[in-house]
Amino acid sequence: MSGTASADWVNPLRDKRDKRMPRIAGPCGVVIFGVTGDLATKKLMPAIYDLANRGLLPPTFALIGFARREWADQDFAKIVHDAVKAHARTPFRQEVWDRLSEGIRFVQGTFDDDASFASLKETLDKLDAERGTGGNHAFYLSIPPKAFPTVCEQLSRSGLARPDGDRWSRVVIEKPFGHDLDSAKSLNHVVNSVFPEESVFRIDHYLGKETVQNILALRFANQLFDPIWNAHYVDHVQITMAEDIGLGGRAGYFDGVGSARDVIQNHLTQLLALTAMEEPVSFSPAELQAEKIKVLSATRLAEPLDENTSRGQYTAGWQGGEKVFGLLEEDGFSKTSTTETFAAITLEVDTRRWAGVPFYLRTGKRLGRRVTEIALVFKRAPHLPFDATMTDELGKNALVIRVQPDEGITLRFGSKVPGHSMEVRDVNMDFSYGSAFAEDSPEAYERLILDVLLGEPSLFPVNQEVELSWKILDPALDYWARLDSEALARPDPYEAGGWGPESAFEMLRRTGREWRRP
Ligand code: BG6
Q1: What Å distances lie between residue 340 and 142, 191, 327, 333, 336, CA to CA?
Q2: Domain boundaries in the chain?
Q3: 209 annotated ligand-binding residue
Q4: Ranges in the chain, pLDDT < 70
Q5: How far is the CA of 263 from the centre of ligand 1 (A)?
Q6: Cβ of 205: how many Cβ atoms within 10 Å?
Q7: Which residues are listed for NADP(+) binding in this entry (predicted)?
């Protein structure tokens, strides 16, 4: 090659940047719609402060609140300040707060009022000129989905949705992305008619969790696990998301939604996709999404539905030494509500890797304790050369990804009990994040908000994934709706503090299996 670089010459060093260095967001502003909600107070504002504290936001960053309240900028700044003090992960530092608060603005308005959006545009233009936000904006819709169409249209009308040149405009939406396949399609249609798909960031906060990203590291950075990660060795997979909290105070969102729509359609289906998908060609967003879409297209509910699904509703009981109400006594729920607070389903993944391996997904409120885990339960050894009673207490081998709390991985296998006889019992080998690494994991929302600002879409489900997840779940929802409408059955009761209704235990028992007791 001659001394001058040709136009298509690619500098081999260009991509050798040390990817361990965190990337810092460029000039931009985040507009939050729904600033008075719980999510904004407990997660979004604290995560923005934590990012600023870690030096990951530019000095020109601006945070803009939009709501009906008659607040001045300082009133909103005080709300953010209190939220940060109460909920931020990292320590409060006055100098970080001072810099952040200089870029805090508030726009008073309502979603259906053109003048409110004109005033939002004016505020953003002024910030671009004075603070240097560069005409780049993320619009975070932390509002009920029924308001999405209006807000998207207003952003479009006021010229904020599609800026010129290389300035960007992104929209961030929170679940629920619809309540079934049809409504998800129309929602996607509305959002995509204003924002192109590459500017839409759908939050599934489970994908921002460190332990969930570690599924990819565990599977694709190691040689050890892949040979046994298939139907030859795995008997079944259990994905559990158990919560001990009840639904007091959440009737407005939860009644009529239920556990399956609330978390199975999104978080648990995403965990299944990461566990069951094939190795992507690379970790580029498109390759990763292609593999998730492929495995979700091969996934379906096992039939018959009465044997392969279970739904429940918690009744009064004891939790953490306290007497707690049943769902029907919680404020805001009607005495006849059939909203499920527990759901379990059996899925089948029709691929060469997983044919014949059931994936059991379960979630519930007011269960024994808060725990999320993915357990690959292995087949028994084909032959046990021991005296019969010596293996009485030997279970099946299991590899358990502990998503939270106590993040880590457990390998469960049989070991000889010390003594003269060859008795074998289960033991655990543990990896724990807390003891293996010194640094704390960032909160899921820190990671996800930063990725929005960087325009990095890997951890955000695209509309095809959302629609496929509804396609998988819809038959169970329709089945339960039919039971309700024909008054054939209600969700099965289970006592608060337990592990769900009898029908969920029966779902596995019928196949000779049992749920793990995390
Ligand atoms: C949300 C659900 O998506 O996840 C809530 O709407 C649930 O019902 C929450 O409580 C649990 O999140 P985490 O991160 O605490 O497991």
Answers
A1: 24, 29, 9, 12, 12
A2: 29-203, 209-382+442-450+459-509
A3: yes
A4: 1-18
A5: 7
A6: 19
A7: 68, 175
